[in-house]
Amino acid sequence: MKDQTTISLNTASLAIGYEKLVVLNDLNLQLKKGELVCLMGQNGTGKSTLLRTISGVQRPLLGDVKIGGTLLHEMKIPDVARKISLVLTEKPTSGNLSVFELVSMGRYPYLGWNVKLSISDKHIIESALEEINLVDLQDKKLYTLSDGQLQKVMIARALVQEGEIMILDEPTSHLDLNNRVEIMCLLRKLAKDRNKSILMATHELDLALQMADKLWLVNRNKTIAAKVPEDLVLNGSMDAVFGHKGFDLKTGRVAHEKTGKIIKLIGVGHGYWWTKNALERKGYTVNDDGIIGVEVLEDKGKFSWTILKNGEDESTNTIENLLNAIGIIFQESLPIRA
Fold it and tell me: Domain span at residue 190?
């Protein structure tokens, strides 16, 4: 029997779209507390429409959305705002607001007619600024912020809204790798530490596979498969949706063209992993049947590599030199021992 206390949002036979146009159909989904869920699919398949529908911005065509067991369409707008924090892709229109002022807007569902922050409200805002590492930026104007900083501000605003559900539409779009990873880590931490249900639409396949507790994958038949990422990889659903070219979902890595040449690699830790990455990028296959042996050595954080050859082992202190040396050995077809 399922523990209903862990479910913050669920849909029943939900169909979404516009007038007579059904975008997604027969959706029976659940958001659980403490989970980061990534909504994924091809462009134009209805991800944003789904987010708007389950957050109450758009009415469903059929079926129901329930928040904590209460039908969404029966809830008053302020009550929905206290349950769901919504972060859409649009940037704030007023760049002259300060970070503190924008974050404080998350408290509006709790304020009276005079819109005056209480001591308790200010404490909640200050706590969010500290948790999202925005204290040093709280007096900065929005127009002075980078895209990554602005996205963190939007998340802080959603956080002070104190809804148990946080819904975000492409929060990492237009961000560099460092900021994408930071935002994903931040959202995962908030889900765990704050026991929130966090649903985000994203195209960050590599990060979602590593960090999401569950994926909502939009299928080509206008339904959604909701499973842990690994199950969707292993049952072929991810390949069926995305049809990846050059990306091997079995390993989560780019598939390189093989040269047919095999190398036996010896070592442990991240030095081994990055050496293997370089060898495979060059088209070599790494396994114990290699006729060339390479040993990865580490001494106080410094790495070196030894190529094992008959009678005269060769050492180098960079992967670039290692690759060059292996290339020469294969060209000369020297006798090798592993």
Answer: 4-248
